[in-house]
Amino acid sequence: MIVHDPDRRLWILSGPSSCYVLHLDEADRLRTLHWGPRLSHEQALSLLRLPQPEHRSMEDPADGVLDLASAGGLRYGQAGLQVRFADGTRDLDLGYSGERRTDRELVLEFADRHYPLTAECHYRIYGDSDVVERHLVLRNAGEPLTVARADSATWVLPRLSGYRLSCVRGQWMAETRLHRGELPYGETTLTSRRGVTSHQANPWAMVDDGTASEEHGAVYSCALAWSGSWRLTAQRLPTERVTLSAGAGHDPVTWELGAGEELVTPACAGLYTEGGFGSASRAWHDHQLRHVLPHAGETRPVLYNSWEATGFDVSLESQVKLAEKAAQMGVELFVMDDGWFGARTHDAAGLGDWHPNPHRFPHGLGPLINRVHELGMRFGLWVEPEMVNPDSDLYRAHPDWVIHRPHRARTEHRNQLVLDLSRPQVADWLHRTLDELLAKNDIDFLKWDMNRPFTEAGPDERLWLDHVRTLYDVLDRLRAAHPHVRIESCSSGGGRVDLGILRRTDQVWTSDNTDALDRLEIQHGFSQLYPARVMGAWVTDSPNPYTRRQVPFDFRFHVAMAGALAIGGALTEWSQADLDRAAELVAAYKRIRHLVQHGRQYRLLPPDGELSAVEYLAPDGGQLAVLAFRRARRFGHADPGIRLRGLDAQARYRDQTTGQIHHGAVLLTHGLFADLAPGDYASALIHLIREKG
Ligand code: GLA
What is the DSSP string of 553-573? Predict the structure, then answer.
């Protein structure tokens, strides 16, 4: 619901338990008066009587409290909107020019008082979610100008007693490591300059007053829906005003906005929650399941992926053997990874030539696809369509199609270059090639990979935006033309996970790191914002091919069950006992996956301790699954009870394996004793169903 008070120049955007209040001051500056618990109209009006920031001679007191933070005047803080007009003028002088509004959408219009530039602030709310989405639209009717920064949103926090920032850091094989620490004075910038979301940082941030815990406290968070370069600045002014400002692009990329052109930024979502970080995460998960994911109601199938089993050594025979083993253990979707196309027998050739390798698949993909379907599974295929190896027919025919500069070497990474999707003929080729691949083959699923960042980009800086826009456009068109196809977003593991790509894909590849122990931490960070429903998690071999760590079979399975379970091991080398056990564990996952994929997630104990655990509770509270892990046991340390969350204290719950009855009141206070095996790497899945009556 959006309420407008035209006399007091106030707008109140309300969600079920929070609200966002905007006020236009006498100078037409758009202030955030409130972002927090829900307020009535009368309560919101009373905010106008609160003392305003003091006027100091050195600066504009509105610095750090503006929703539309444009550069100009005595404002020296971080400005979400910065331009350079043709005559060199950098200041914006925006006047309010009107508003448009529905129940769920609000547009506030501003125009520069001299130059023919308009800025529109767009807001969207959802009724059943406390997320407020905001984006910006700039229109230039004058001479070409330069946009130095056009953030999607600037979120203004109230004065708190302290400020603590939560975000994730990472690298290839070690994505989404949670970082939580005091927000320093000045500007803290999280960014990707790579043309893709990145492993190193992810475009979201949470701020609390330093006292929030997993279960208590207010959390202010935001997330940008964008899969290219981005920048999120957390600013803490000496006056203790804090803003989070996020947008596409990175320093020092700027864009020319020609006469008659408009710039529409991606959306940035803001969310205020109470109840700690756990509650913030659940609100984000819930919002994505309701409003972001295209087929959120579907259950993700158990997937098999051939990459760790066969690498580039792909053939019809080897894939069929894997598929037969996978089908026997209950796999529902078989994915053939890299190595099936062109001259792709290693990573130095073939990218760009998206037709089956004639030696490996002399009769095309048909025989493999038919066999996989006969086995009762869906068929998925790996592609990396934004890339080209110099040793490929595509590159030999179109060497100018890659991102490059004439006087610079073309920097290769993994022997490949990036196609310039901002060029219309490349965009057409990309769409046509994939459309044909899907039309000619009975493919149910694509793993869409992107394995290297941009280099030598320019001179048209629009590339940073247009590459992503083309990607989104092609994904949207392919989905519309092939509605049964589901898509996994991958970028050397978890390099492209964000609210933008999740709007057009069905799951993500979380990390190339399939070591179960490392995964616990990666999954913990991933879950801060993203739901288990999209988190692809494979069970692979032991010792792990990357880390050489040996981890027991059940532990590897239990860790992968915390997301969309998949298998990625060399099944033809697994013992019959392991194959049989795998079938039992896959069946166990199928009994609880509705809870993992559609339930509410409670991080009971974080992965840095001896014992960690996560709970998934059915939306109606009628049943739950707990996954518990003990990494190593120290002498004299007895496992604590794992206190469960969200249960009815008066209800009784039956353990589906042992038949034992547990009381809600006891599970909530003393906890669940998981009866883990005595040694290291002990794990358990516990499935409890509420007793009737
Ligand atoms: C990337 C992906 C892997 C695999 C390889 C294939 O690294 O993250 O899962 O698909 O590419 O080359």
Answer: HHHHHHHHTTSEEEE-S-GGG
How is residue 122 written in tokens? 């767009």
CA of residue 264 to ligand 1 center, whole Å: 33
Residue 310 CB–ligand 1 contact under 6 Å: no
Ligand 1 pocket member 175 (CB < 6 A): no
Q: Residue 328 belongs to what H/E stretch? A: helix 316-328
| φ, ψ dihedrals at 100, nearest 5° | -130, 150
Handedness of CA 614, 488, 392, 401 (dihedral sign): negative
Q: Whose CA is nearest to atom 7 of ligand 1?
A: 492
- Backbone dihedral region for residue 526 (phi beyond 0: left; psi -120 to 50: alpha; all else: beta): alpha
What does the pLDDT average to over 358-384? 98
Minimum-distance ligand 1 atom for the alpha carbon of 493 = 8
Ligand 1 proximity of 204 Cβ (cutoff 6 Å): no
Please tell me the distance from the alpha carbon of residue 340 to that of residue 348, in angstroms, as a whole number: 14
**C-beta 67 within 6 A of ligand 1:** no
Nearest residue by C-alpha to atom 8 in ligand 1 = 492
Please check the confidence at residue 58 and state whether its pLDDT lies above 90.
no
Q: Angle at Cα 159 formed by Cα 153 and Cα 160, nearest 5°?
A: 110
- Beta carbons of 225 and 503 less than 8 angstroms apart: yes
Which has the closest alpha carbon to 500: 225, 129, 171? Answer: 225
Ligand 1 proximity of 451 Cβ (cutoff 6 Å) = yes
Res 54 pLDDT > 70: no
Which active-site residues does the annotation give? 449, 512
Given a cut of 70, is residue 398 above it in pLDDT? yes
- What's 290's DSSP letter? I
**Environment class of 206 (CB within 10 Å of its CB; exposed 0-12, middle 13-18, buried 19+):** buried
What is the structure's pLDDT at 650? 98
Q: Which residue has its alpha carbon closest to ligand 1 atom 2?
A: 492
Ligand 1, residue 490: give the atom nearest the CA: 8
- Contact in structure between 203 and 227 (CB atoms under 8 Å): no
